[in-house]
């Protein structure tokens, strides 16, 4: 349990009628605008910032918050690009013989290497629309990953 203690402000004390007791008024905000509340009795005070990530991001410098946001998006694009690459590799989408065949359907059209998987990951996560790279019905895992990446993208955008 977090308790807040304030510093007594003696200049706001009313004149005492008794000589034995002096009353103190505690202000939450001082006249100069500074906060007069300080957390005390906080167990593992340093870990409270990790537990309350929203306050931590709001309190950090803006350049660090922007870096955190950019790195979060870049990490998610890269992680999903690896998953798209694994699906395409397992399905044989990178084999030249299958790409030239007219009766074969890839998991995602126009995926040729990791770079195209990364670009498709960005397009899919931000729902910018599919240009030439689109998932097909040939792979249920591609359809499933499209849904998962869309959900993760919405959660990440709302958190950032």
Automatic annotation (TrEMBL):
<dbReference type="Pfam" id="PF01007">
    <property type="entry name" value="IRK"/>
</dbReference>
<comment type="similarity">
    <text>Belongs to the inward rectifier-type potassium channel (TC 1.A.2.1) family.</text>
</comment>
<dbReference type="GO" id="GO:0005242">
    <property type="term" value="F:inward rectifier potassium channel activity"/>
</dbReference>
<feature type="transmembrane region" description="Helical">
    <location>
        <begin position="62"/>
        <end position="88"/>
    </location>
</feature>
<dbReference type="InterPro" id="IPR040445">
    <property type="entry name" value="Kir_TM"/>
</dbReference>
<dbReference type="GO" id="GO:0034702">
    <property type="term" value="C:monoatomic ion channel complex"/>
</dbReference>
<dbReference type="GO" id="GO:1990573">
    <property type="term" value="P:potassium ion import across plasma membrane"/>
</dbReference>
<dbReference type="GO" id="GO:0034765">
    <property type="term" value="P:regulation of monoatomic ion transmembrane transport"/>
</dbReference>
<dbReference type="InterPro" id="IPR016449">
    <property type="entry name" value="K_chnl_inward-rec_Kir"/>
</dbReference>
<keyword id="KW-1133">Transmembrane helix</keyword>
<keyword id="KW-0812">Transmembrane</keyword>
<dbReference type="GO" id="GO:0005886">
    <property type="term" value="C:plasma membrane"/>
</dbReference>
<protein>
    <recommendedName>
        <fullName>Potassium channel inwardly rectifying transmembrane domain-containing protein</fullName>
    </recommendedName>
</protein>
<keyword id="KW-0851">Voltage-gated channel</keyword>
<feature type="domain" description="Potassium channel inwardly rectifying transmembrane">
    <location>
        <begin position="29"/>
        <end position="160"/>
    </location>
</feature>
<keyword id="KW-0633">Potassium transport</keyword>
<keyword id="KW-0630">Potassium</keyword>
<keyword id="KW-0813">Transport</keyword>
<keyword id="KW-0406">Ion transport</keyword>
<keyword id="KW-0472">Membrane</keyword>
<keyword id="KW-0407">Ion channel</keyword>
